[in-house]
Amino acid sequence: MTYASGPYGYGYGYAPPPPPPKPGVIPLAPLGLGDILTGAFTTYGRYWKSLVGMALVAYAGAAVVAAGAFLAGWLAVGDDLDRLADMPAAQSPDFDDVRPLIVAFALAWLVAMAGWIVSSGLVSAAVPAVLQEAVLGRPLGFGAVWRRAWSRVGSVIGSVFLSTLAAVLPMVLVFVGFVLVFVGMIAGIAAAERGSGDDGAGLALTGLLFFLLTFVTMPLVVWLWVKFSLATTAAVIEHQGPLGSLRRSSALVRGSWWRVFGITALVGLMVGVVSLVIQQIISFAGMFPLSVYSTGEDATPRDVIGVFGGITLLLTAAQLVTQAVFAPILPLVSGLLYVDQRIRRENLAPLLAQTAAAPH
Questions:
Q1: 3-state SS class at 329
Q2: At what angle do helices 329-346 and 95-136 cross, to 10 degrees?
Q3: pLDDT tens digits, residue range 85-116?
Q4: Does pLDDT of 204 surpass 50?
Q5: Cα Rg, the chain, nearest whole Å
Q6: How far apart are CA 145 and CA 241, in angstroms?
Q7: 126 to each of 41, 183, 255, how far by Cα in Å?
Q8: Is 9 helix (H, G, I), strand (E, B) or coil?
Q9: What are the tens digits of pLDDT across the range 58-79?
Q10: 91-124: buried (b, 16+ CB within 10 Å) or exposed (e) per residue?
């Protein structure tokens, strides 16, 4: 049977429309949920060495920085820790005794947080760099991923910080308001006569007000989170700065908020459940040596830290591998949503097809 086009479109006896080009992991056309999921897992399968390798290097580097910071803090104040442990039970330590410990471990925590932020930024920047070539069907080695991610890590961290700040700020304001109201209530109770019947009612009203304000602001937090969910991809692919990335994400999500939210929430729930189950199994397995080992009655804090340090290190390594394996999946979905929105809004498909056909 021959196929021919007719005045009423394609159907029986007429040629079907040609499929959209597919040089890489997705067809260059508006994407459905199946296309996005297939594209994400196909990208993961083809480029898993670069994706997982980048996550392992980044998170392992952050873990080394954190371990080094806390080790340095422990070495600096280890004698103070032993002295506090040897104090008689009836003697309470002064603030001057615990101040070195607070300062040392606060600095170690800040260094660890800085390392974690940089490592998360590298992973967030690496995924769009890989996806950009995966859509075009081009190979990409680990070295190229590292160079592209490192060149955009500042913009990615800035966009993540601003989007997180915008989403969390309403909750922070509610919390601050609750604290101020609570402090005022405590001051009023302290000034009032004991046994006043309004004290309990006032505290209950304050708690109810905090709950209602939190409940009201949660939709705003979710709305802002989805609104800026494509910012990191824009920061890498379009070389946008932090503010420009947020504006691009807002423009692309506009009119498709529920679709972006639904797909992101679905994949996030799937990844979160599987990752949580695996991490719980790892944590449960690590409880056995912790539950059967005894350090003895005369063990010092140094002995305890030395004994449990090895077990903690093994558990941390297992958690690190798990996180590195699952970390790229949700950013891949966000990246494909970014590509899909640009195809729908900006007719990006012909440009992608032309770029894919050009010599690389």
A1: helix
A2: 50
A3: 666 655 566 666 667 777 888 888 889 888 88
A4: yes
A5: 27
A6: 19
A7: 16, 46, 28
A8: strand
A9: 988 988 898 888 888 777 776 6
A10: eeeeeeeeeebeebbeebeebbeebbebbbbbbb
